[in-house]
Specification:
InterPro entries: ATP_synth_b/b'su_bac/chlpt (IPR002146), ATP_synthase_B_chain (IPR050059). Pfam families: ATP-synt_B. Its main location: membrane. The protein is mainly α. It has one domain. The chain is built from three helices and no strands. It is rod-shaped, with a radius of gyration of 63 Å. The model has no long low-confidence stretch (mean pLDDT about 90).
């Protein structure tokens, strides 16, 4: 019997397969593949859990953002109301100030008018007195002047008492 290279290759293959089966390589490969599949399943479930957790965090942050925006809007509205109240108060105080200043100015104008009228009256009285003195001095003699003086002194005494 003549054995060629094919026969020896076949015998080597059979010995190799027997050795692989004897050493339980298919079990190890299956076990390794099962472990790898379990690891992949665990990674997938972990990724799913992390994704759900991330979605929850996202929803929570979106809710907080909306709350913060609402709070900011309330703060802005309150600031606008306060600014409007301050502006209205300032306008009212300005109007009151202007009204007081106008009233004071009108009062000063009336006082000035009164002073001017009194000054004109006093000047008119002084002028009338000076004219009366000149007329009386030119028409009256010493006796008439003495009588008028005594009469004026008497009136002053009666009025003072």
């Amino acid at each position: 019997m003549h054995f060629d290279a094919t026969f020896f290759a076949f015998v080597g293959l059979v010995i190799f397969l027997a050795l692989v089966v004897y050493l339980k390589v298919p079990g190890m490969v299956a076990k390794s593949l099962d472990a790898r599949a379990d690891q992949i399943r665990n990674d997938l479930s972990e990724a799913k859990r992390l994704r759900e957790e991330a979605q929850q965090l996202l929803a929570e942050y979106q809710r907080k953002r909306k709350e913060a925006e609402a709070d900011a809007a309330k703060i802005v509205a309150a600031a606008e109301r306060e600014a409007e109240m301050i502006a209205a108060e300032a306008k009212q105080k300005t109007e009151e100030f202007v009204a007081r200043r106008n009233a004071l100015s009108e009062q000063k104008i009336k006082q000035a008018e009164t002073d001017a009228v009194n000054a004109v009256r006093a000047a008119a009285v002084d002028l009338a007195i000076a004219a009366a003195e000149k007329v009386l001095a030119s028409r009256a003699d010493a006796n008439v002047q003495a009588d008028l003086f005594n009469q004026a002194v008497g009136e002053v005494k009666t009025r003072l008492n």
